[in-house]
Amino acid sequence: MGDGFKSNPKMLKVEGKNFSEIGRDFYQATAKLKNGLAAQGDGGGGGGEAPKETTFSSVVQDAWKGLTTFSDKEGTPPWGDDELGEKFGVVYEGLRDGMTDSMEHLATKLNEIGKALERMAKNHEENEGFNDALIKEQKPENRFGGERRASKSTSK
By three-state DSSP, how is residue 99 classified? Predict the structure, then answer.
């Protein structure tokens, strides 16, 4: 025979809070990642700016700026806006959005697990208290399923 099922409600509460904190930290890390990517000019999943009107002088200015500096054109993603850059952007943005969505989902689920562990601890404590109260109110002769039977000794 084994020792049966044992639980530690105090530990369930502690670990539940830990899971919730991990979920909250993971969500904050996801937000920081999204904001960092957006700061790099990749759109960050929130869509890009509306394209600006192109004139001959703006093309010349952008070309000159591109020849004289290392900065990207305003509103152009870091991977460029040529044919290869556009193809890369489609793949990158799809992966980025899928990754950040799944990271947010994971953060939510970690928090839900934490809350469930805390509820489990509370329910277990209430159940144990209820069972203890039932046992204490039972009469001694009814604790083990029937009246005590006096053993008869047949001595002659």
Answer: helix
